Each structure stands twice: as C-alpha cells, then as structure tokens.
C-alpha cells in the first residue's frame, strides 16, 4: 500500500493517490484540474485509476474528477448531500470502497460545508490514515462561512461551526492516535486561518497541538472559529457550482482561449497585466490591472475579477502567457478570457513616488492601506490612512478623496501594484496615484 501526496503550491492544495500494490489499483482523493500528474503516477506503477473521491465541492479550485472519469472510466464518489450533477456513486457513513488489502470508509463530517466527508483508510484490518478534506487541517480546522449562499445545501456559518465542533469530536477524535492525517490544504489557503506549514500529521499530534481539538465548550469553539476568518474571494461560490456540475476537460478548455491580440481592444474590458511591476510602471495598455504572476496569482485574479466578467490577459512572453492561462484555468476563469496576448509595454505609465518627500510630509498625501482588516489591527502603519482591502477596492473607489495625490500600500508590495493600478484606472487625470511598493518596509516598525 502506498499513499502519494500531490501539491499545488499556488493554491496550497493537497490531493492524494492511494495505491494497492498487490492489485495495481488506485483511488484518487480531491484531484486538481490538471489530471496529468495522476495519469503519470498510474503509468509509473502500471496501475489503473478505479475511483475518484470528492470530499466536498471545492470553493478554491476546479477539480479534475469529471475528466478523470471520462479518461479512465473511474467511478466518482461523493456524499449524497452534494447533489452532484455528474454520474457518481454516493459515499456516506457506512459506505466502503474495498480494493486489495485496502478499505476506504466514509465519514460524514459536516462543518466546512454541509456535504463534507472524511475518508478513513484501513489496511490489513487496521486504520492507518484519514483524508480529512477541508474538515481537519494541520493546526486548524476548515472555515464554516463559505456555504451560506453556495452549493446544493446552504447553511449559516453559526450552524456549520456547531456541526464542525461535533464532527471533529464525534468522528475524527475517535480514531487512534497513530492514524495519519492527510488534509486537502496547507498553510496559505483561504479555506482556514491558522494552518501549519506541515503537510501531514497524526490524530495524536493534532490532539496535542490543534486548537480546534482541545477541551472547550461548543460556544467557545464557535466564537473562536468565526473570529478573524480571511476574506472570501469572489470566485469561491462560482467554483462550488462548477465542481457540483463538473468542469470540461482542461485541454479542451485551454484550446478555446483565443491567444492572439485583437485588432481592436474593447475599452470596457480590463486587461490583466501579469508582468513584473517595474515593467508595468514603465509602460502598459490603458485599462490594465497589474496582477503580477506569482504564488497567489489565481487567488487575486478571482478576488478582483468577478465570475462571468470578461477580461484580457497579457504577459511578457509566450511561455509565461501559456503558464498564466493554465493558472487561470485552475479556478475556472479561462472561459472569461476575451483574448490572451504578449505585450512589451504601452503608452500608460505610473509615476515614481518621491520617497523622501512622502516620508517628510505624509499629510500631503491620501494614503490608501489595502491590507486585510486583521493585518491592520495587528500592525497599523499610517495614522490617517484610508483602509480599503484589495478585494473590496473596486467597489469602494468613491471613498477615495481627490484633493491630494494618492499613495497605495500593502505589506510588501505585491498587492499595492494591483491596487494602485486599479485606482489609477478609475481616477485617470483627476489626481496622481503612486505605489509605495516594497518601500513600505521602511515604514513598518
């Protein structure tokens, strides 16, 4: 028996292959949209993928379960509560998948979502591992506030938080301390708030160190779980619905993206310019937002641009453009790309801030702090700054006064590149807009 973990660092996502070496059969759990790594793993072990299990309809990425079914003939398993619109087998309390010496047992563990399941792996008659989806993480548990308006079943966050309390204690804490814990996400995901950097653990270790498994009352647990959860990106509800239906194959989806600069650009559409901020500031096309390629490109694209909102996508070369289109497809946004093309510059520029003057006279500027609320509470920087988180910026532009030049900052420069470009687009020639960028580090004590 072998457990193989696959990681998508950009989305902090873990998926798994469970291999029966005696029967050369594989069951996949929570696969990414790109099914290539799973097919390669199966080929390397001369094994067949017989099943795919979805622990819940994921909000932060598009799953490849439907394409895997179409390519390999694998059976898709999910909870009956999910309301899946694709051919599937229900997998709930008491249901099992047996292959070789392995038995996979379903546990209904609502909390992150009403339809969440965990999967206990029994080998040679002993429980060896549990795949916890977004229920139990390493050091944390899943957030309960993503399904108030999404999915087949909806529930208020308070109700789901109470369900999470009991799922953890009545289902997962009953497992032996030696049982390995394999979650669907690690540190950096927006599906939880305080995850460890570790990629696996044990029930015993989580009992000792995970706050959500400690001896606290239901009311204390609910209060702590609901406090200071991260923001919810615009694309999350869209991905829940897409995963419930099942996405088209990745190659087919990518082939439909027009990769060519149009003769005429639609001025009503935003251009997502993923080039480095230094290149962007030197010259870019009108209507551009500088969401730089990086570890969290997908998350910020889906936080700034709403589902169904059509946009252009540009990069500095063909190879980078290809990578960006693939990243866009991870969240199902490839369908909204009007066209993707390479750019070397443009007529629009962003002026460079005179740092010495700003440091000496910050009162002469409108300072817009686009960090999240929790960051601002923990580490305030400028006393008179206007606080508008990046994910709300487009909707709150009217809150920015025009009487002074505008300086935008975040915590390190990545978000402020996007934020300053959004504001500059909106304000045009009404006032100057500057990006404080990495220089923010000079002002953080």
TrEMBL record:
Annotated ranges, domain Rhodanese: 265-359, 361-445
GO biological process: glutathione metabolic process; hydrogen sulfide metabolic process
MF term (GO), any: hydrolase activity
Keywords: Hydrolase, Metal-binding
Top-level division of the source organism's lineage: Bacteria
Signal peptide start-end: none
InterPro entries recorded: Metallo-B-lactamas, Mito_Persulfide_Diox, POD-like_MBL-fold, Rhodanese-like_dom, Rhodanese-like_dom_sf, RibonucZ/Hydroxyglut_hydro
Name of protein: MBL fold metallo-hydrolase
Organism phylogeny: Bacteria, Pseudomonadati, Bacteroidota, Sphingobacteriia, Sphingobacteriales
């Amino acid at each position: 028996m072998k457990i193989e973990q696959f990681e998508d660092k950009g989305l902090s996502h873990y998926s798994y292959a469970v291999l029966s070496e005696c029967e050369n059969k594989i069951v996949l759990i929570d696969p990414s949209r790109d099914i290539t790594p799973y097919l390669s793993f199966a080929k390397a072990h001369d094994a067949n993928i017989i099943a795919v299990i979805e622990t819940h309809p994921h909000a932060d990425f598009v799953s490849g379960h439907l394409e895997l079914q179409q390519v390999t003939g694998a059976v898709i398993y999910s909870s009956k509560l999910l309301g899946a619109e694709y051919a599937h087998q229900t997998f709930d309390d008491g249901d099992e998948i047996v292959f070789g010496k392995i038995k996979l047992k379903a546990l209904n563990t609502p909390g992150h979502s009403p339809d969440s399941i965990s999967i206990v792996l029994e080998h040679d008659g002993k429980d060896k591992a549990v795949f916890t989806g977004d229920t139990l993480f390493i050091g944390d548990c899943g957030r309960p506030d993503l399904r108030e308006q999404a999915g087949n079943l909806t529930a208020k966050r308070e109700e789901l938080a109470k369900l999470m309390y009991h799922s953890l204690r009545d289902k997962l804490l009953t497992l032996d301390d030696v049982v390995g814990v394999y979650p669907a996400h690690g540190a950096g995901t927006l599906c939880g708030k305080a995850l460890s950097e570790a990629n696996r653990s044990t029930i015993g270790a989580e009992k000792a160190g995970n706050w959500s498994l400690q001896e606290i009352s239901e009311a204390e647990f609910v209060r702590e779980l609901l406090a200071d959860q991260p923001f919810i990106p615009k694309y999350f509800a869209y991905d829940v619905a897409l995963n419930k239906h099942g996405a088209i194959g990745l190659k087919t989806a990518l082939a439909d993206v027009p990769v060519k600069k149009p003769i005429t650009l639609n001025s009503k559409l935003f251009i997502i310019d993923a080039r480095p901020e230094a290149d962007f500031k030197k010259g870019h096309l009108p209507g551009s937002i500088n969401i730089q390629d990086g570890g969290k490109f997908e998350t910020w694209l889906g936080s700034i641009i709403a589902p169904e909102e059509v946009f252009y996508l540009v990069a500095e070369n063909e190879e980078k453009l290809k990578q960006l289109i693939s990243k866009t497809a991870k969240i199902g946004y490839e369908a909204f790309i009007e066209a993707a093309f390479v750019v070397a510059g443009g007529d629009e520029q962003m002026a460079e801030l005179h740092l010495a003057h700003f440091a000496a006279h910050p009162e002469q500027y409108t300072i817009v702090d686009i960090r999240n609320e929790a960051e601002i509470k923990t580490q305030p920087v400028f006393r008179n700054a206007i606080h508008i988180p990046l994910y709300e910026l487009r909707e709150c532009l009217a809150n920015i006064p025009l009487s002074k030049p505008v300086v935008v900052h975040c915590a390190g420069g990545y978000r402020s590149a996007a934020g300053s470009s959004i504001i500059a687009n909106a304000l045009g020639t009404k006032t100057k807009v500057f990006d404080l960028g990495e220089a923010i580090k000079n002002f953080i004590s």
